[in-house]
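Sorry to interrupt, but I need a hand with the structure work. Could you add the entry underneath, on a fresh line?
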Amino acid sequence: MEDQTYGEMYGGEEYTGVMAGDDFDDNGIIDCDDGDDDDGMLDLGSEEEESVIVEPTVSVPEVETISKQEQLRMIHLRSHLNQLTETVKHHRYLTEKTREEQKQCRNKIETLETERDQVFKEIQGAESDNNTSALYRLRSQHERICTEIENEQKLETLISERLEKEEYELAKVDVERGKFLLQEDELIKREQQLATEKTDMALARLRKEEMKARKGEEILRKREKNYIEALKAQQKQQQMHLENAQKSHEKHSKYLKQTVEKHKVRQEEENVRYKENMQKKMDMLLKLKGDITANRENLKALHARDKALEKEEKQKEDLERRRILSEGGNPDEVLLIRKRLQEVDRAKTDFHLDQKSKQAAIMDKILLEEERMKKRKKQLPNLWVDPQKEKAKIVGPMKKKPLRVFKEMDGTSLFDEDEAAGVRFDMAELEKMAEDAADREVDAVTKDSELEKPTPLPDSSDSSDAESDDELKVDLAEPEFEGLWDHHKPYKVPKDTESTLKLPGATKMDKEIMTKVLDKHRSGIILKQVAAGREFQGCPFYSKPDVIHFKDFVVGHTYKKKVTLTNVSYTVNYCRYINITERLKDFIEIVFDPPGQMSAGLTCEMLVTFKPMINEDLVGEVNFLSQTGPFSIPLHCTTKKCDLSVDTSVIEFGTTVIGETLRRTFTLTNKGALGTKYEFFKVTGSKQRSESAAETSLGRLTTADTIQANSPDSASVMVKKETKEQPPAKKALDEIDKASQDVGGGSEEGHQGEGLSAVDGEQPPEGEENVITESPGLEVSDHEDYGSLDGMKVGVMAVGELEPFSSVKLEIIWQPTIPGKVDTEFLISFSDPLSESISVQALANAIDVPVWVERQTIDLRICMYDRLYQDTVIVNNRATTALRLKFEVCKELRNHLELLPKTGYIQAQSQFSAQLKFLPRQSLFEEAGKFFDKETGVLEAPMTIRVADQTAPVPFTVQAVVTTSDMEFDTTSIDFGCCTIYESVKTTIKLTNKSILPQEYGFVGLPDYLEVQPDDGFGTLLPLETIDLEVIFSPKKARDYKFELNCKSLINREFKIQCKGVGVHPPLELSHQVIHFAATALYDVSTTSLHVVNSHTSTNEFTHPVPRIGKGDIAPVGPTSFEFVVPEGAPLTISPSVGTIEPGKKSRIQIRFTPTLPENSIKKEAVRMGTKMLELKAEREYQEKLRKEKEEQEQAQTSSKNAKPGAKDKGGAKGAAKGKSSPVAPTLTVEGPRPITPPTLESITKATPAYTAAQGSLLRQFKGSFRSYTIPCYVASGECSNPGELPYSIHNTLYLEVHCPIVKPTLVVISDNGNTCLDFGEVSLGQNITKTITIQNISNKHVELRSSIPDTSGPFLMLNALRLLPPEGTHTLLMSFTPTAGRVDEEIPEEERTTTPKFQEVFKIYTGISVLHVTLAGKGVNPVVDLSMPMENGVFNMGAVLVSEYVEKTFKMQNSSSLSIDYCMKLESLSLLRHTKGQELPEFVKRDKKAKSQVGTQNNSGQNVFDLVPSEGTIPPGGTTEVTVTFAPDHASDYYSDGIKIELFGKEESHSFKIAGMAKPRIMYVDSGDSRFPNVESLADVLSDGTDEEEGRQAMEPVMLTLESVAKEDEYVPASRELHIGCVRTMAVSQKKEGRKDARGSKNGEFQFDNIQPIIAKGFSIDPQKGMVEAGVLKPVTFTWTPPPGHDPNQIVDGTVTLTLKGDITEQFKVMLRAMVVSE
C-alpha cells in the first residue's frame, strides 16, 4: 500500500508498476540488475547451434544514471521526510486536542462560577428569611462548588502547561521539517529520473527476453527434429528386437512348456500346502475362540468364587463386629487396628526382603572387591606388610537405625488428623495460637488487667454484698476541719444536663439544630491550659484504678468500687460527670460529688455501684468534662471464667529398654473463678468418636466432618446452648447427657476413652443439625488398641473436676514394646465451652534386645508335596560381645522341616546365617495338624532361637502354603469314531489343575495324524483352572487307529488318555472342502463352483488307496450318487444338489449365496415403526383437539364478556338457566392421546409398504456379519433316486464348509418405500411410459456407478446416465417401458399371447463392492375395442336423406381390455393422402374391383358430409362410449361414402370401416337396380331431363333389373331379384304431425306397378305389385322369372313395367327387365 501511494505521488501509474516489479534486497536496496550477468541468463543454446540472433543496437543519449548508493540515500531521505511529516501531524493533533480540552475546562469553570453566584444569592435569601435548614444545605452546596472551581482551575493550569509544551514541540518539528524543503524538491526530481531509468531498463530487458525467446524457439524446433529422428531409429531398432524375440520364442517355446508344466505342478503343491496350513490356522483360531470362551467362563467362575469369599469374609467381619459390640468394645477400632497390624507386618516383610536383596548385592560387591584385592596382593605384595594393622583399619558394620513403625512417631499431633483439609500443626504453632487468643482476650478487657494484685482490696468488687455493708459501718476516716462533713448532701446531676432541651411545639429538625447549637456552645467552655509556656495535652485527671473492672460477678449480687481521680494537669482544673454508656445505665449507678476547682495534685473520689441482672460481659465507659476537655474512664464487667494452663507441654522420658515402665506427671492449674470438668486422653493412635461412619487414616481425624463427643458437662452445656435453636432435640440431648455421665463414672479405661473436645474450640456451623451420639470408650489393651503399641497411656486421673483456683496432677505411663522413637500427643479437654483443649506431647526412645531376627516371618510361599525348598535365616547381634545361639524346631515338624546348624555362635555386632530346609510330605497333616490347615493348605510353624544368658528367646515363624501337583482329565478314553481322510474329527477334553500354583504342561510324542490345540498342546494352567483342549484326529488312510495321548507337566509327571478311531476313504471327493465367498451385500448374489470327483476306477488296493471304511469291504466300482443337504434357513442354493457320477468323471456343482434379512426381524421393525407413527399421529390429534377446545373456550369466554347485562332479565327462566350453565372456570375435557393398537406381526406382509420401509431401515442399520455353514454331502453307490431317498452310509459322508461374510449394501432404493421392484403395470402394446426410481449411497465413500445393459430387443430402457455418487447422495433413474408383441410368444400361453404379454427383467447397478438388483416388470396389454353397429358388407349405411337435410345414427365402442384406452376416429376424406389416392384410376376402368380409396361423393360446399361426435376420448376398462354419426349432404347423389379409422393411443389402428349414404331430391326413391352409371360422380354439370309441356310431367327414369336362371339337366331354376322402394323421413315442418312437433316428418309413400300383364306372359312375376311404404323404411319388391316351357335358353327375354311412386309428388319409373338362362 505504501509503495503504491509513493508511486502515484512521484511517478504516476508507470512508476508504481516499476516499483512493484523491482527486486529489493534485505536492506531495502533496489536490485537494478540488467540481466547481463551470466547467472541471470538462460542457457538456451550451445556453441554448435547454427542460427545466431544479433541484438539490435539502440543509440541512447548518455545521461548520468543514479547509482545504488544514491538510491539508498534517496530511500533513507524519503523515509526521514515521511517520519518528519508524521511527527508534525501527530504534534498538530495533540495541540488541537489540548486546546479543545482547555476550552472545555474554561467553559466548565464559567458554568460553575455562574452556579456559585446563584447559590450565594440563595444563601443571602435564606439568611434574610432565617431558613436554617436551607441555609446549611446551600452552604454545603456552595462549598462543594467552590471546591470544584478550584479543582477545575488547577486542571486548567495543567492543560495550559501541556498546551505550551505541545506548541513548542510543534514549532520545533516544523522548523526541522523546513530544513529539508530544498532537499525534498531535489529528491522528487531524482525519484522521477529513477522511475524513467527503471522504465527504460524494463523495456531493454523485455527486448532481450524476446530475442532469447525467439532463439529458444529455434532451438526447440531443432530438438524436436532430432527427437523425431531418434524416435524413428528407436522404432526401427525395436522392430528388429521384436523379430529376434519372435525367433527366440519359437526356439525356446518347447523348453518353456516343460518348465511351465513343472511350475504348475509345483504351484499346485504349494496351493495344497497353503490350503492345509490355512485350514490348520483356521482350526487353531476356532479352537482359540473356544478356549477364550472357556477362559471367560473360568474367569466368571473365579469371580463368583471371589465374591463368595468376600461375602464370607464380610459375614465373618459382621460376626466379629457383633461379638465386639456384645463385649462392649468398638468394632471399627478393633478391626482397623487389626488391619493396620497386618499392613505393618506386610510392610516389615517387604522391608526385610528388600534389605535381603540389597545385602546380597552388597555381598556380591564385597566378594568382587575381595577378588580384586587378592589380585592386587599378588601383584603388589609389598603394600600389605602388616596384616594386623590393616585389619584394625577395617570399619565394622554400621549400626542399624531402629525401625520407625508408626506414622505418629515423627512429631505429629492431634491436629494432623485432618487429612481432608491437609492442615498440619506442631506444638510450637499450638502455643503461638494459644498466646494470640490470650492476647486478644486481654485486649478486649483492658491493657492493664495483668497489673491487678491477686489480694482483693477493701473496695474491690471481689467482696460480696454483706462484706460491703460491714465496711460501710467501720469508718476510721475523720474530717480535717470540724463540720466539713456534717449534713452534707451528695451532688446530683441536674436534669437539664441529662435530658434534651424541650421546646414546646418544636419539630424534630428544630430540636436537632438546637442540640447542635448547645454542643457548639458547650464546646466553647473548653479552654487551653498553658503554664510556663507549655500547653497541657492529654487526660487532665488520672483514675485509680485505670479501668473500673467488676470481675467474676454473679447475677443478683451488688458490687461497689471506689475510684480516685487525681488532677494531673499543670494548674487549677475541675471535673464534672457527664454520663455513662447507654448499655450500662440499667446496671451501673454513679455517685460523684464535684469538688469544684482543684489544684494540681489534688484528688476526689467517686463511688460506682454495679447490680448485675444478666450473665454477660459488659463494656463501656464513664464520661467526664474538665476545663481542658472531656475524658472517660473504661468500665468492664466480666463473668466468671476458667483460666487453665499446664506447667509443661513437653514430657521427656529419655531412653529405655523394651519392657520397662516409666511414669511422668505434670500439673494442670485453673486460675479462674469458674470450675470445670476435664478429660485427659491420648490422641495419637486413637480414633475420634464422631457421627461420621467413613473410615479415616489411623491417627488422623477429619475435623471438618467430625463432631466432638463431649464429656458430661460439655454435653449439658451444648444442650443448654442449643435449646433455643432446637427445642425438639432437648429430650434427646438430655438422654445423651445422662448416658455420657454413666460412661464418665465407669472404670479407668472408660475414663481414658472419653470423647474428644473439638479442635480449637471449633463449633459446627449454624444450620447444621448436631447430633451427639454415644460411642464406647477406647480400650488400651496392648493387643486390641493400636494406640497402645507405642507404649504410651494415661494414668489413673483421666477424668475429673477442677475447682476454681486449684490444680491437679496428671500422669503419663510408658511401657515400650517396640523399639524406636515415640512422639505421642495427649489432649486435655474441658466441659467449659469457652476453654480450649490443651495438648501435651510425650517424647521417648526405646531400644530392643541385642539379638534379633531380620525376618520375623519367613514366608516360603507356595510349596508342593515331596519337593525340597530352602531359605536362609539371618540373625543379627547388636551387642558388643559374642553370643551362643541354639535353633529349635517343634517335634511335630522335625520330619518335614530342619534348621542347620542347630547351634552356633554369633560375633559382636555381626550376622549369623542358618539354613532352613523344608520337604513337605503327604503325612504333614497327620503329624502337624495343629500347625497345618488341610483345607487351605496353610502351614504356620513357630521357630525359637535360644540365646545364652538371655531369658527371653527370639521367636520367628515359618509360613508356607502346601499344595499338590496333580493334573486331571475329565475322561480316561476317547473314541473318535469314523472320519474320512479328507476331513478331521475333533473332541474337547477338560484339563484341570488341582494345584494352587500354575503348572506348565505339554502333549508330547503325538503321531502325525493327531493334533492338540491350542498352542499345539503346550501351555500353562493357572491355579485351580480348568481349560478346554481340542484333540483333532486327521486320519491319512483308511484303517483302524489305537494310540495314547500323553501329557507331561514341568516336573516330569505324566497323565495319559487311551484313544481310538477309524479312518474312512469315501468313494467320492470334493475339489474344495472350504468355500470362501467374497463379502456380499444384503440382497446381492455371489456364486462359486466346485467339483465332485469319482476317482474310484479300480479295486486293486495294492496299486492305490481304495475307498473303504477302516479295514472293511472295498466300495464297488461304478456310478456313485451324491446328495447335498443345505441346512434349513441358510441363504445358500446348490445346483445340482443330487446327481450320479460315473467312474473317472466329475460333476460341476454351483453354489449361490443370496443373503437377506430375516423376515421376522423385518416384521418386528415394521411393527416398531408403525407403532411409533401411530403414537405420533395420536399425539398430533391430541394436540389438535386440545387447541380446538382452548379456542372454543376462549370464544365462549369472549362472548360471555361481551354479553349485555340486561340480557339475563329478558331471557326469563331461559336466561337464568343459561347463567347457571355458563362455566366460571373453564376446564379441559381432553384427557390425553387416545390409546393406540399396534399392528401385529401377522398383518405385516411383503406386499405392504411397512414391510419395505422396515427393510430399508434395517439395511441402513446393518453392521455386517459373518456366518459359516457346514453342508453334508451324502454318498452312496449306484444310481440316485428321488431327493431325500438316497441309501447312503453315514460314514462316507463328505462335509463342505461355506464361509459367508455379509456386509452392508452400498446402495439402497429410497423411492416407493424402498421397493426394489419397479412395476409399470399394464401398458398398451406400443405405448411408452416412464417411471423413476431413486437410489441413495448409504456408505461413507464416493461410489462410481455403472449398470447392466437392458435387453436391446426388450421393452425396458434407461433414459439418463449414472454419475459419481457422494456419501448420502441420491440419484434418480429414469426407466421407460415400451411393450411390443415380439417376445410375447415365448413367455405366456398361446391363448393369451395376443392380449396379455408379460415382461420382466433384472436391472443391475454395480458399485464395485456390491450390486443393487432392481426388478423391472410390466405387462403389455393388447387394447381390444368392440364396435356395436349395424354393418352391411362391412359398410355402415346411413340410408337415404333429402338434400340439405341430415340424419343421425349412433354406434357403441366397448373397451374389452383391462386398461384405459385413448382412441381417435379419423375420416379418410380428411387424410393428407386423399388426393394422392384420388389420382388412381376409378373402379369402372380397372379390371380389379378393389378400390383403395373409400372416399366417395362429398359435399360441394366443402363441408364434411359425415361427422363423428365424439371423435376422440378415453374409454375406461370395461367401459362403453356412444358415438353419433351425422350424414348431411348438400346435393343429390347415391354415392356418398367415406372411410373411418379408429386409432388407439395415437398409433395403432384398431378398426376401419366404410360409411355410406344417399341423398334424394324426393321422399320416394327406388334402389337396388342395376347400375347405369359409374359410382364416381362426374365433375360436369348434369343436365336435367326435358319435360313434356303438353302433358306437364317429367319423363320416366329407367330402372334396370337383370335376372339369371340356372339351367340344370332337365329343369330351370327360377331367378329372383329384389327391388327396394324407400321413403325418406323428412325434416320439413309441413310434413310433421301435429302431436309430434319435435319429431321428423313421418309422411308415408305408396307404390304401384302398372302394365304387368305383358311381362307375366314372359314368365315374370312381381310381389307385391303395390303397397305403402312407411317413412324411413326400405320395402323390398321381389321380381321372379321362371322360364316358360319351350324357352330357348339362348334367347334373352326383355320386358318393361311402369312403377308409380306417390309421395310429396308422384313419380313414375320405367322398370326394364332382362332375363337369361345361364349354366352352373
About this structure: The chain is about 30% helix and 30% strand. The longest helix spans residues 181-326. The first strand starts at residue 23 and ends at 24.
